[in-house]
Design brief:
Blueprint lengths: L2 H11 L4 H8 L3 H8 L8 H11 L3 H4 L9 H11 L3 H18 L1
Helix pairs in contact: 2-3
């Protein structure tokens, strides 16, 4: 998914108009329209971080690099996981696989 597609999806999921996002970023409606249609791309770090914070997603998600909206759980998991012994890591993986099959 492209940045423009992701922006439009997030905006619509939040029941917001292009004007709402334009006002948030202090840009014109046309700029938001151009972003969503893939004509232009934000080059200003402030715009990128404001959008990510506004929608509560990671920058990677906003840019379509990942489908994980927020890496909070992933980061927390990795920090703890790396502190485990190899045996504990295998137990965690086995348990996660068990939980995943239980949901299907």
């Amino acid at each position: 998914m492209t940045f423009g597609e992701r922006l439009k999806e997030l905006r619509e999921d939040n029941d917001e108009k292009q004007k709402d996002i334009a006002d948030l970023l202090f840009v014109s409606n046309k700029v938001i329209s151009d972003y969503e249609r893939g004509i232009h791309f934000p080059r200003d770090e402030r715009i990128i971080t404001t959008l990510a914070n506004h929608f509560g997603v990671s920058i990677d998600y906003l840019f379509g690099i990942t489908n994980i909206k927020n890496h909070t759980y992933s980061n927390d998991f990795l920090i703890v996981f790396h502190s485990l012994t190899p045996t504990q890591k295998n137990e965690v993986i086995d348990f996660m696989q068990f939980l995943a099959t239980k949901n299907n």
